[in-house]
Design goal:
Blueprint (H helix, E strand, L loop, with lengths): L1 E6 L4 E2 L5 E2 L4 H17 L4 E5 L2 H8 L7 E6 L6 E3 L6 H11 L5 E2 L3 H9 L4 E6 L7 H14 L5 E6 L5 H5 L11 E7 L22 E8 L9 H17 L3 H5 L6 H8 L3 H40 L7 H35 L5
Parallel strand pairs: 1-4, 7-9, 8-9
Antiparallel strand pairs: 1-5, 2-3, 5-6, 8-10, 10-11
Helix pairs in contact: 1-3, 5-7, 10-11
Pfam families: Thioredoxin_6 (PF13848)
């Protein structure tokens, strides 16, 4: 279980212990960002605020003179995590969601698999044979080291492919029951490798489903052959591809505009506003095209993988047709939605031409 709490400063108090609060504008701004994120993620974890110095000692060790956002976890190895990222609801929401779970999670139950898939961030999934179990401790050290470097972009989990509940999911992932060795894959619950839009409210997906974004079958490799460098190479290749299609602020977050800067923006000449509007429309259209291209490429890759799996045994193709058809149908729905969104954005640009 995790709790995200905003510990707010109490700057003065009387002898009767009736506290008065004085906030710097930055404190009020941070509190507003925190409450916005809490409203968006209230279906994922619990949120709280603390103004009492006595209780603050339990969170920070001593009363604080500045606001602090902490994620308090039941995991003793990772008891408290303090947010220090951009002052923006989307960036804070993503940080809370990705840090509310373990750095590398043992996905040995259906509930743990569902909760990770539901977060909305791609999941690096290590499916391994039972023979890896004896060397699992050393293996996890490598995965934790890589996971710590990309925590806000990728979740990490592992399971044993011959142990429940994974055999029942193997068909969805296109893994033959007779296959040997481990599988490295990056999966998600939909066809959006860039992850969910953190500016919107988090809702649990209606059902568990797998979409494969990247996959490597490592049949001839043992646990001793796995190194941090190999894991990083696989992860970095995927993230490099995804970041090409992601708007910069999706990964970096946004910083709150100070009041003086806001006044300067309002005082800008009308021509500058027109240029800003044009750049914004261009950016949105490019983002939509990138999403369309990524979803198309991801769908084709999933279909191609299904065909590659039966290349050496074409007699099995007939049995794979239902799952391939389902993948194509999902891709069709996704592309239709992207095309409609693109058409709508083009219409909006035409209707608001006076802003350009």
């Amino acid at each position: 279980l995790s709790l995200c709490v905003c510990v707010c400063a109490c700057l003065s108090h009387s002898l009767s212990h009736t506290y008065s609060f004085t906030f710097h504008p930055f404190s009020l701004c941070l509190l507003a960002v925190y409450r916005t994120s809490a409203r968006k993620l209230q279906g994922l974890i619990s949120f709280g605020e603390c103004f009492d110095p006595t209780i603050q000692r339990k969170f920070l060790g001593s009363p604080t003179r500045k606001p602090v956002i902490q994620l308090v976890k039941a995991d003793k190895r990772e008891r408290k995590l303090t947010y220090s990222g951009p002052l923006a609801p989307a960036a804070l929401s993503r940080w809370i969601a990705t840090h509310s779970v373990a750095l590398v999670q043992d996905l040995s139950t259906e509930s743990s698999i569902e909760s990770h898939m539901a977060i909305g961030v791609p999941l690096f999934l290590l499916l391994m044979p039972d023979s890896y179990e004896e060397e699992l401790g050393e293996l996890i050290v490598h995965f934790r080291s890589v996971a710590a470097r990309v925590r806000e972009k990728l979740l990490f989990g592992y399971g044993f492919k011959d142990t429940e509940p994974w055999p029942q999911f193997a068909q969805q992932l296109g893994i033959d029951h007779s296959s040997t060795g481990a599988f490295w894959m990056i999966v998600g619950s939909d066809m959006t490798p860039t992850g969910r839009d953190w500016s919107t409210a988090w809702l649990r997906p209606p059902s568990l489903g797998f979409q494969i974004y990247a996959m490597e079958a490592r049949g001839k490799e043992t646990a001793a052959d796995v190194t941090e460098e190999k894991i990083w190479k696989f992860v970095n290749k995927f993230l490099s591809e995804v970041e090409r299609f992601s708007p910069p602020d999706l990964l970096a977050g946004q910083v709150e505009v100070e009041e003086e800067e806001a006044e300067a923006v309002h005082a800008a000449p009308q021509g500058a506003e027109g240029d800003a509007a044009a750049r914004n429309y261009d950016k949105l259209l490019r983002e939509r095209l990138s999403s369309l291209q990524m979803n198309f490429n991801s769908g084709i890759a999933n279909v191609k993988k299904a065909l590659d799996d039966v290349q050496d045994s074409p007699q099995q193709l007939r049995g794979r047709i239902p799952s391939i058809t389902s993948t194509v149908s999902n891709m069709e729905l996704r592309l239709k939605k992207d095309l409609l969104d693109l058409k709508r954005q083009l219409t909006n640009v035409a209707q608001n031409k006076e802003e350009l």
